[in-house]
Specification:
about 300 residues, alpha/beta, three-stranded antiparallel sheet, 12 helices
Length: about 300
């Protein structure tokens, strides 16, 4: 008749393992923080379950029977695996983990940070990978549903189930091609207002409310083109007379390659704070915490 596992008290197994390894009831009881009679009673219950004496007495203590040695080999390995799976301090080893972390971030992050992040991970983690996800409308739901691990964004999350911390500050600059017919070396407010712009989608207006910054309520840029990625802002500006407002770090990385001028924004603009955010439900996950540290270190190098 097949054993009904639900009828077995699995708490007996750690007691059995301790007695095998210690060889004496008294030492097993001390190791487990139990009384010796309680250990003896647990062994008696396990004897009835497996229909075997499990131990014989000898001068050196208790010796396991052949059935007990077989049980110890099989149960001990599985019990150790279960312990590691349930113990947060032992369930993640960056040297052997094959976990893939999913990040919601604009291509700005991919361009500036992802390479250095992977290089940092490879110093201790040969198999951990990073998957970049596009920030479409409602992307915060992916964090809450567990479909993404982290996000980088210039807006604080509205949901209190998400944790956020400032990750970096970015300065805004304007780029124009080196041979631009109207802009050479300096950029006045009049130049900025008169020029055609290449822009990101509507969501950019939430980060860069230019009508407020310029003190001109209702003002909108003359949009000549709208693109989907930060990198395309610079490539379009390099090949046309359109100008673009971009993160300074990205402009500095690409200006010489694309033959672009980097120009200060024509009026004083506050720095843009970029936040790193993640689900609060993962705060105590050791793998998540470890990766957050690596990610924060890579962002600090910018």
């Amino acid at each position: 008749m097949k054993l009904n596992l639900r009828a077995v008290d699995l708490n007996l197994l750690p007691v059995f393992i301790a007695v095998v390894e210690e060889g004496q009831l008294s030492r097993a009881a001390q190791r487990l923080g139990m009384s010796q009679p309680a250990v003896s009673a647990a062994l008696q219950r396990l004897r009835l379950t497996v229909d075997d004496d499990l131990f014989t007495r000898s001068r050196s203590g208790l010796s396991p029977t052949p059935r007990a040695r077989e049980l110890y080999t099989e149960v001990g390995t599985h019990l150790q695996g279960i312990t590691q799976a349930l113990d947060p301090s032992h369930c993640f080893d960056p040297a052997t983990s094959e976990r893939s972390f999913r990040l919601l971030a604009p291509d700005y992050f991919e361009f500036l940070v992802l390479g250095n992040l992977i290089a940092t991970l490879r110093q201790s983690s040969p198999a951990i990978s990073v998957q970049m996800l596009t920030q479409l409308d409602g992307w915060q739901r992916l964090l809450l549903a567990g479909d993404a691990d982290f996000a980088l964004d210039a807006q604080l999350p509205a949901d209190d189930r998400l944790q956020a911390t400032p990750a970096l500050e970015e300065t805004l600059a304007v780029v124009a091609r080196s041979q631009h017919p109207n802009i050479q070396g300096t950029l006045t407010l009049e130049d900025f207002l008169a020029a055609e712009h290449v822009v990101l989608p509507l969501r950019e207006q939430q980060v860069l409310p230019l009508d407020q910054i310029l003190g001109r309520p209702g003002w909108r840029r003359r949009v000549g083109a709208q693109v989907a990625h930060y990198g395309n802002l610079l490539s379009v500006a390099a090949a046309s007379d359109l100008i673009a407002t971009v993160p300074l770090r990205m402009a500095q990385r690409l200006a010489s390659t694309l033959d672009l001028q980097i120009l200060p924004f024509p009026v004083e603009v506050p720095k843009v704070v970029v936040y790193l955010m993640w689900p609060k439900a993962l705060e105590r996950d050791p793998a998540h915490h470890w990766f957050r540290q690596r990610l924060t270190e890579s962002l600090a190098l910018l």
